[in-house]
């Protein structure tokens, strides 16, 4: 059986695949978006957002992409890095694809010239280019970071031709600091923190509401245990709540009790905050 039917839901509320329908606009997230929007809209150089694994960086990157694409004065694209091994000129070619260049020369110098020409064209049309890079902590090779620095050197008058917003774990900051010239171009460093207790409750209820819930399926005391086991990490919260709802439906629990949360958390091997 699936717990959706049992709890009267239209979709899975705690799927750990990024889904903008479930974006939770908490105060912390809203403030971060406001700051990153300013970086993009004002054509600043480089912004860096870091956070622990599971805090929602990828969801934030995709939501920011969605918001920026609603601004016709911006040409925005998103790169998601899946590994750390890149051939020379890889970043230039990927950016070329993001800004609408279909044919790119093989030689890096020639490719960069074509990309620069396109960036200048957008600038003449009063459009600023913004590149978001998720999992940017995978850029560990100095040559990759140097390519980002090279793009940030592209200017016309007092305007930069491209803005970068990097998302990644704390290692990203160390990587950026290894390139002094690049580090000096960072105009904003932000940290995505874990949710507090109240935010965790609102997060869970928000996702249930989006999924079609007409009532609170968690007993009040269950939230305290969920928070103690997940410590406010969104990804861990999703995993625990998803499994708790499944087990609750199997056991015919109309309301999720603290004892069931405890049982499932122990089954998953989660450690409770004392």
User: What is the level-2 CATH architecture name of the largest domain?
Assistant: 3-Layer(aba) Sandwich
Strand order, main sheet: write it out. Answer: 2-3-6-1-7
- Topology as H/E string? HHEHEHHEHEEEHHEHHHH
Total DSSP helices: 12
Biggest sheet record: 5 strands, parallel
- Pick out the low-confidence regions: none
Number of domains: 2
Report the strand count.
Answer: 7
Find the structural class using helix and strand composition: alpha/beta
CATH superfamily descriptor of the largest domain: P-loop containing nucleotide triphosphate hydrolases
CATH topology of the largest domain, which one?
Answer: Rossmann fold
- Average pLDDT: 93
Rg is 22 Å
Helix content: 40-55%
Q: How far is it from the N-terminal to the C-terminal residue, by CA?
A: 35 Å
Share in β-strands = 5-15%
Broad CATH class of the largest domain:
Alpha Beta
Which quaternary structure do these chains form?
single chain
Q: Outline, from the CA principal axes? A: elongated
Commentary on this structure:
With 274 residues, the chain is α/β, with parallel strands linked by helices. The chain folds into 2 domains: 42-192, P-loop containing nucleotide triphosphate hydrolases (Rossmann fold, 3-Layer(aba) Sandwich), CATH 3.40.50; 195-268, Helicase, Ruva Protein, domain 3 (Orthogonal Bundle). Helix content is 49%, strand content 14%. The chain contains 12 helices and 7 strands. It has helices spanning 3-7, 27-41, 57-68, 90-98, 108-124, 142-152, 171-177, 180-183, 197-210, 220-230, 234-250, 258-268, and strands spanning 46-51, 74-80, 128-134, 155-156, 159-160, 162-168, 186-192. Strands 2-3-6-1-7 form a 5-stranded parallel beta sheet, with helices on both faces. Strands 4-5 form a two-stranded antiparallel sheet. The chain starts with a helix and ends in a 6-residue tail after the last helix.
């Amino acid at each position: 059986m699936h717990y959706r039917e049992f709890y009267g839901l239209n979709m899975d509320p705690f799927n750990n695949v990024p889904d903008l329908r479930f974006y939770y606009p908490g105060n912390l997230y809203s403030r971060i978006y406001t700051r990153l929007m300013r970086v993009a809209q004002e054509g600043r150089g480089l912004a860096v957002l870091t956070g622990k694994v599971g805090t929602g960086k990828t969801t934030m990157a995709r939501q920011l992409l969605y918001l920026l694409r609603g601004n016709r004065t911006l040409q925005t694209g998103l790169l998601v890095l899946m590994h750390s091994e890149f051939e020379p000129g890889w970043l230039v070619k990927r950016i070329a694809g993001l800004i609408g260049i279909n044919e790119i020369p093989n030689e890096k110098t020639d490719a960069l010239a074509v990309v620069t020409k396109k960036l200048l064209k957008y600038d003449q049309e009063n459009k600023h280019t913004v590149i978001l890079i998720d999992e940017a902590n995978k850029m560990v090779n100095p040559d990759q970071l140097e390519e980002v620095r090279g793009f940030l050197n592209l200017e016309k008058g007092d305007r930069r031709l491209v803005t970068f917003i990097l998302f990644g774990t704390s290692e990203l900051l160390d990587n950026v600091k290894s390139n002094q010239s690049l580090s000096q171009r960072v105009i904003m460093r932000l940290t995505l923190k874990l949710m507090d207790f109240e935010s965790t409750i609102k997060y869970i209820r928000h996702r249930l509401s989006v999924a079609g819930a007409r009532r609170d399926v968690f007993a009040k005391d269950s939230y305290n245990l969920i928070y103690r086991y997940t410590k406010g990490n969104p990804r861990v919260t999703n995993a625990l709540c998803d499994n708790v709802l499944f087990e609750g439906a199997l056991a015919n629990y109309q309301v999720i009790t603290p004892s069931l949360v405890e049982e499932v958390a122990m089954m998953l091997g989660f450690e409770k905050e004392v």
